[in-house]
């Protein structure tokens, strides 16, 4: 085979790059395409939040006014019994909702995991409430808890004439009436997530536990549940962020009543912002809501993502 | 009558999943202290059989005896077995010590007895320094030892292994293989071991049960399986590089019966069989690459001409592929001997180590 | 180790082993269908199913009764005389204080809100997800993180500034404004969904297309879109359910004549003075819940995948 003689002339010099680097125009299409997202993130999410927090320190009434009054709105907020009630309600609803959702959701998922028949049917039944609006849920349960025709009426007609169960008219227990409705809507989702988590458990673990002679309940309690920690945490965060947003359900089921007994922060915000012509209060209340969420989310985010940054 | 020294006996075991038959009328006797390997490729039923013995799967029919006790309806924990899984299946949130003691604690064993057993097991398996660690902090080999330890502390007669080394890399696999063999020698327990790796089977087993489609093809010690395979499947499965197969027929030549293929005749002198070699019968001749002699190896047996097609030098050995009588066959020779493509060589088969199979039934003749 | 020679009396050991079946347990262990375990499992599941189905039953049953029957019985008693009058009334005649057109007005409003909102929000989010997955640039991930964090921020904190912005542009209270709001707040979940999906597609496809000379939009339209039908279906399910069921944005960003069905429903039931027509209320509730329920029952598994996808963040 012949071989070419290497050329004696040096290679042609490359053309110099044309002046200023135009980084900004690289990947232009993508930047254009992402403009909506950037705008939303910067203006609405970031900017809007900052704006609301800043204006919570003002005296705004019907329209926003830049007259700053320090922590005035917050003092009035925490002096308002209506706000205190809303916070109490949120706490009760939140804690009970978390506990019951997780327990009921997990138990149902564990039962569904037992290779039963009609699994599809059961799942369809448990999950369909999730497809409904909170308004629908609230109204239906309002009707079911109707003292005359609903649960109370039925139990009384069966003989227990002194049976009382009218949460929607009883300020002390109204939040539990809302809780029943909220659980009805939300536990289906928790069950789905738990079931997915259970299905992710290596089957060999179950076999090993059987060979070791571990009874099923102990396997669930001491082996499976500890293994499902990530699923539990995700579910917790999900339920938690949903609790703070509790609004439509209350509006539909009780309109905040009787009186203010079933008031919740989200409703407080709306009422003051758009009906009572007191924007300042509304801003302060929503900033408080933001704070509550931050207290839940920030530790979780640090746990989930902060640890990975190291090493 | 069942031999009293049987550790595990299986009678007429069948397992159907709907229309699919996984195990068919299986019979098997495993002696006390024996290391039995269930060997086969995926789907042959070996894991299914092991799970039935363990009690994790219910058979459709048949019986299982462990130490002469009918355990067909017993829970796994009451069968006197310990099991080691492919994925180790260690309880991830517990320390090694808790992993080992969990079952014993649940059974209500006194604390000092538990401590004694853990000490013994961790001593044998050399996992004492690992007792307070969690499985995530262990290497693959360490995890497998802990898994074996979990079975050890149960103080049982029979150990079941479900492809325990398949998740490890090659080097670790060969290390742990030796350890398992040593373990068997020191403990002398009955061990039933499932694998698809024939090397593991050949090195570890007292007897191998090769399975295909839920039926045991052959149950013998490794040497017999290697040298006297019962059918063509076993012959082709065991041995690497695999056995050469030549299709042809038996013929009569001058009073002697020979094997004829594509016009070439091979003498069958030295081949041991109790069957009648009737001329005209269609057969398959099987010869292993290391049982074929080339050129200077020949010591007077019948030789034929062959042409070298490809050679695969592997360091210690050289595998050469040759064309002979219309077939391509492989021959193993020493690594120092090299052949050029197209070279002509003289080949002779060692008929004492060969196998003849009926072309239709694939059974050994 | 056991002596090999004693293990094999004969060469082919299987035949020697076959003996008679001994007496005693064989085959499958007999199991009672009505075992304690089964009773417990199906019992609890059955009771739970009852709790979940109850409201649906009550809704249907109440909506098919005449008012006198409603007052006579209780919520569980089945109708003795089935009538569809409450349904007709709910749809066409119910009063919401301003007019008595029934829910039909709200229904069509919801449809008018739903269709553009779904289309726009999914279009924007899918392109954004695609850009984030394949065409990253400095800062893109940062903005995405802000977006995701924004998903956790309660809407109330960002609502008023949004009202101001829409007012300035002049679309506050209009359909366009509400469509934009739905697009904005649907972005976090949907963008995450699409980004993860596109990132999971084989990179080789993308590289091959670029080598062939295709650009940003061409790759999106010719390659990514045709491969993404499943995720689009999931996104549609999430958005249809979320937007149809929305109440807060409906009540803040619309005027009375553009109220969506949910807002109207609440007005019909809760702000009626005088006699409460429970049967009409229940019919109205069922009508409002019908659309997402149908989507749910039709989509089955996909729905589960959709909420699981939407529910798992990060």
UniProtKB/TrEMBL annotation, chain C:
Pfam hit, one: BPD_transp_1
TM region positions: 39-60, 113-133, 142-163, 169-198, 219-244, 282-304
Sorted UniProt keywords: Membrane, Transmembrane, Transmembrane helix, Transport
Entry's Gene Ontology BP terms: transmembrane transport
Domain ABC transmembrane type-1: 107-299
Main localization of the protein described in the UniProt heading: membrane
GO cellular component: a single term: plasma membrane
InterPro entries, per database record: MetI-like (IPR000515), MetI-like_sf (IPR035906)
Domain of life, per lineage: Bacteria
PANTHER family: ABC TRANSPORTER PERMEASE PROTEIN, GLUCOSE IMPORT SYSTEM PERMEASE PROTEIN GLCU
Name of the protein described by the UniProt record: Glucose/mannose transport system permease protein
The species this protein was found in: Aliirhizobium cellulosilyticum
């Amino acid at each position: 085979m012949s071989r070419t003689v290497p050329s004696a002339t040096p290679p042609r010099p490359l053309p110099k790059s044309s002046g200023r680097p135009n980084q900004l125009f690289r990947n232009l299409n993508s930047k254009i395409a992402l403009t909506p997202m950037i705008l939303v993130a910067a203006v609405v999410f970031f900017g809007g939040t900052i704006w609301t927090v800043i204006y919570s320190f003002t005296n705004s009434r019907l329209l926003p006014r830049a007259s700053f009054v320090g922590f005035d709105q917050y003092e009035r907020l925490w002096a308002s019994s209506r706000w205190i009630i809303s916070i109490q309600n949120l706490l009760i609803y939140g804690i009970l909702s978390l506990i019951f959702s997780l327990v009921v959701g997990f138990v149902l998922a564990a039962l569904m995991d037992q290779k039963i028949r009609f699994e599809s049917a059961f799942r369809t039944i448990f999950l369909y409430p999730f497809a409904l609006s909170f308004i629908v849920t609230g109204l239906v349960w309002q009707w079911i808890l109707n003292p005359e025709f609903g649960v109370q009426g039925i139990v009384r007609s069966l003989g227990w004439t002194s049976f009382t169960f009218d949460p929607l008219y009883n300020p002390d227990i109204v939040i539990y009436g809302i809780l029943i409705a909220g659980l009805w809507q939300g536990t289906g989702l928790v069950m789905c997530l738990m079931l997915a988590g259970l299905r992710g458990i290596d089957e060999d673990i179950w076999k090993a536990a059987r060979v070791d002679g571990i009874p099923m309940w102990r396997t669930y309690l001491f082996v499976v549940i500890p293994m499902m920690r990530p699923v539990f945490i995700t579910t917790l965060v999900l339920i938690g962020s949903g609790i703070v947003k509790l609004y439509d359900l209350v509006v539909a089921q009780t309109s905040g009543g009787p009186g203010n007994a079933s008031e919740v922060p989200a409703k407080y915000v709306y009422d003051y912002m758009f009906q009572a012509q007191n924007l300042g209060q509304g801003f302060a209340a929503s900033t408080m809501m933001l704070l509550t969420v931050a207290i839940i989310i920030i530790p979780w985010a640090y746990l989930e993502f902060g640890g990975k940054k190291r090493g | 009558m069942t031999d009293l020294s049987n550790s595990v006996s299986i009678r007429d075991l069948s397992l159907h999943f709907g229309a699919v038959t996984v195990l068919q009328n299986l019979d098997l006797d495993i002696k006390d202290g024996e290391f039995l390997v269930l060997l086969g490729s995926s789907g042959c039923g070996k894991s299914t059989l092991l799970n039935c013995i363990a009690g994790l799967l219910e058979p459709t029919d048949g019986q299982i005896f462990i130490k002469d006790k009918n355990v067909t309806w017993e829970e796994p924990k009451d069968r006197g077995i310990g099991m080691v899984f492919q994925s180790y299946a260690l309880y991830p949130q517990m320390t090694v010590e808790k992993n080992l003691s969990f079952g014993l604690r649940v059974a209500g064993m006194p604390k000092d007895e538990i401590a004694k057993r853990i000490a013994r097991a961790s001593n044998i398996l050399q996992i004492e320094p690992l007792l307070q660690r969690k499985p995530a902090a262990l290497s693959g080999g360490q995890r497998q030892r802990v898994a074996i330890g979990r079975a050890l502390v149960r103080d049982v007669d029979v150990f079941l292994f479900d492809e325990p080394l398949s998740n490890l890399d090659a080097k670790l696999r060969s290390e742990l293989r030796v350890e398992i063999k040593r373990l068997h020698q020191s403990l002398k327990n009955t061990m039933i071991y499932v694998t698809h790796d024939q090397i593991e089977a050949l090195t570890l087993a007292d007897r191998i049960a090769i399975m295909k489609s839920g039926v045991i093809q052959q149950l013998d010690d490794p040497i017999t399986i290697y040298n006297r395979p019962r059918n063509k499947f076993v012959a082709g499965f065991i041995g690497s590089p695999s056995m050469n197969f030549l299709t042809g027929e038996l013929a009569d030549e001058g009073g002697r019966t020979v094997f004829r293929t594509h016009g070439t005749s091979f003498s069958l002198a030295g081949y041991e069989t109790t069957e009648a070699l009737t001329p005209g019968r269609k057969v398959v001749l099987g010869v292993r690459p290391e049982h074929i002699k080339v050129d200077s190896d020949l010591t007077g047996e019948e030789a034929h001409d062959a042409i070298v097609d490809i050679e695969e030098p592997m360091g210690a050995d050289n595998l050469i592929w040759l064309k002979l009588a219309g077939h391509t066959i492989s021959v193993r020779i020493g690594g120092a001997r090299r052949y050029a493509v197209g070279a002509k060589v003289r080949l002779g088969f060692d008929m004492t180590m060969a196998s003849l199979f009926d072309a239709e039934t694939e059974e050994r003749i | 180790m056991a002596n090999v020679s004693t293990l094999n009396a004969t060469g082919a050991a299987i035949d020697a082993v076959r003996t008679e079946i001994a007496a005693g347990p064989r085959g499958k262990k007999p199991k009672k269908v009505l075992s304690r375990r089964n009773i417990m499992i199906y019992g609890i599941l059955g009771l739970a199913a009852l709790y979940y189905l109850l409201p649906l039953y009550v809704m249907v049953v109440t909506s098919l009764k005449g008012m006198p029957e409603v007052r006579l019985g209780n919520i569980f008693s089945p109708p003795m005389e089935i009538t569809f009058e409450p349904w007709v009334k709910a749809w066409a005649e119910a009063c919401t204080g301003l007019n008595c057109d029934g829910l039909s007005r709200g229904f069509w409003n919801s449809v008018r809100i739903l269709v553009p909102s779904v289309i726009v929000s999914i279009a924007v989010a899918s392109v954004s997800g695609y850009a984030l997955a394949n065409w990253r640039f400095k800062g893109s991930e940062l903005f995405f993180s802000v977006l995701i964090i924004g998903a956790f921020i309660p809407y109330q904190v960002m609502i008023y500034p949004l009202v101001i912005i829409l007012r300035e542009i002049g679309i506050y209270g209009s359909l366009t404004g509400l469509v934009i709001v739905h697009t904005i707040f649907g972005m976090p979940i949907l963008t995450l969904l699409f980004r993860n999906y596109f990132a999971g597609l084989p990179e080789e496809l993308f590289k091959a297309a670029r080598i062939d000379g295709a650009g940003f939009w061409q790759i999106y339209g010719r390659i990514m879109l045709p491969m993404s039908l499943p995720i689009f279906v999931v996104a549609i399910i999430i958005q249809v359910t979320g937007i149809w069921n929305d109440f807060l944005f409906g009540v803040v960003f619309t005027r009375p004549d553009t109220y969506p069905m949910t807002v109207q429903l609440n007005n019909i039931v809760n702000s009626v003075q005088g006699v409460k027509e429970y049967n009409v209320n229940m019919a109205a509730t069922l009508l409002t819940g019908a659309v997402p329920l149908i989507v749910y029952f039709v989509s089955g598994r996909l729905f589960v995948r959709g909420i699981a996808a939407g529910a798992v963040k990060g």
